[in-house]
Amino acid sequence: MILTIDYNDETHELQEKDHQLVDEILQFAAGKLSIQQGTELSVTFVDNDTIQKINAEYRDKDQPTDVISFALEEMGEDEVQIVGGEMPRVLGDIVISVERTREQAEEYQHSFERELGFLALHGFLHLLGYDHMTEEDEKIMFGKQKEILDEYGLLR
After folding, report:
1. HEC string for 36-93
2. Domain 3-74+87-152, architecture per CATH
3. What are the strands of the beta sheet with 90-97, ordered from one edge?
4. N or C end of the chain, less CB within 10 A?
5. Would you tell me how many other CB atoms lie within 10 Å of the CB of residue 11?
């Protein structure tokens, strides 16, 4: 195992197989992307109300969304990078709305598992610095997502 992942299911709706799927897809992606052994992150599963509050507070968008990532490696204006030492790499936090996952799976006419895996991977790529703010960045990020999901076998 490359990643150490702390899971928190605030919805108590997910089954063990759902947690296992997220773990497997993130470990697979970490291997494909050559992430250093022992890298840490957290994944929290919430409802639409909770993710809407987070979205409003941190992104000024007062609506539910599917996934939000908080990268700890992004440097703020007044922050200084700590170099050296034997500390594990801590990427940050991924927050996924289970309700939104179900809604989108139905909307896109694929399985809940496919949508859950997609959102976990999408959040993970954000933690690694990928983004989709420009057309070029979107092409890179979405191409990487498709490549990893296809290789893993989580097809639409």
Report:
1. CCCEEEEEEEECHHHHHHHHHHHHCCCCCCCEEEEECCCCCCCCCCCCCCCCCCEEEE
2. 3-Layer(aba) Sandwich (3.40)
3. 3-9, 39-46, 90-97, 67-71
4. N
5. 15
For residues 22 and 117, what is the distance between their CA atoms, to the nearest angstrom?
Answer: 6
Name the residue among 27, 33, 29, 32 with its Cα closest to residue 2.
27
From the CA atom positions of the chain, what is the Rg in Å? 15
Q: Are 91 and 29 in contact (CB under 8 A)?
A: no
Tens of pLDDT, residue by residue over 110-142, are 999 999 999 999 999 999 999 999 999 999 999
pTM for the model = 0.90
